[in-house]
Amino acid sequence: MGSFRQLLLVAFMLIAALLGGTALRAVIILDRLMAQSGEEAARALELNGAAQALAARTAGMERAARQSLVLSDSMLRKRFEEESRAARAALQQMAASGLGGGDAALWRLQADTIAGLLDGPTVTALERERTVAGEFRELDGVNGRITAQVQALIEDRNKALSAQLDASRSRLTQQVLGTIALAVVLAVALGVWLARPFKRLEQAIVGLGENRLQEPIQIRGPSDVRGVSQQLDWLRLRLTELDADKARFLRHVSHELKTPLAALREGVALLQDEVAGRLTDSQREVTGILHQNTLALQGQIEALLQFNAAAFEARRLQRRKTDLLALLHAQVQAQRLQWQASRLVVNVAGPALSLPVDADKLGAAIANLLSNAIRFSPAGGIVSLELSDTPQGVRIDVRDHGPGVAEADRDRVFEPFYRGERQPQDAVRGTGIGLSIVQEYVVAHGGRVALLSDSRGAHFRIELPHADS
Description:
By secondary structure, this protein is an alpha+beta fold.
């Protein structure tokens, strides 16, 4: 398969060939109709000319015949014969142009009768002249009918030509519309066919951005698209290696830090127990500071290991159909002691909805949001968890009546180890990884989590796609 540029050029050439062929056919048909119209016009002129010539020659025959009878002039008789031949030639021309019927034969028979009356003795010339005059009156009637036939023939041919023009125009219009429709369908089909690999490229890039590195990237299509696909798959493998290196590094560093940290804690504990001797007040204060910081350092290391484990586990979902409302109630029940100790009211609302999810990981995400809401809510406050179904997916809203998130912290609340400026009083300072773990687990399910702007407290929303999305 050629490159995208080559395929696009072929598609344009194919569509142009369709439209160009239709246009060329239209020009050919138009030229043929114009030639036919010209021929019909020429035939009409010939017929009209022949009809006028017949009438003129008949009038000339009458003058010559009657004068030759009255004057007994041979030259006038010869003139009659010349006019008669010219009239018969006009009749022959009309017959060649399509005029038929018995009037032409009647005209010839009448002309032969008149020619016969011209021969005879001189004493009967006047009588024969009157008879010839009557015959010519009948011949004029025949000329009138022939002229009417000529006009009818011309009119019929004009109607036939007009009908042919209408039929040709209708066929041509149908062909043009059909070609345009075919070109549009072809353009849309080619557009969809050519755009499909780019849609897959977009999905592959989004997958890399969301750290979904398990599936190989193999996109069929034009050669240049396949080349980009190969580069993206190389990038996927490289990111997988870097991710594995990062995990190994974190595990190694954490392990290397925990050993001397444990020794440091033991040493501080021995000093506090005055095993090495009695401490002064100043020395006891220093050992207290050391003890507090070793605890804080141990918490940071454990948080680092926890976040690394969560990021690793987020890629290994074990989906099964789960009752989400029951999952919310289970997380509330699991932290019952904490929210009862703060005299909080925790409400769970929503319909019974089921989705194929990893119940443990999604439950951990909900538990982290609930834990934060409990920590930041004032005594006697209300925490609400609401489940709802929308055309876009399933929503889980967690609200509290605490101090909320400072405006300066809103864009960074999901960053690992970031802790906002608003912290609950008389509470252990958090590690800053709870919301980042929530985001890891929710994104792994194909959803998203967001901090919404409410008038009071914090409002977090988890959005999960439907099973068929």
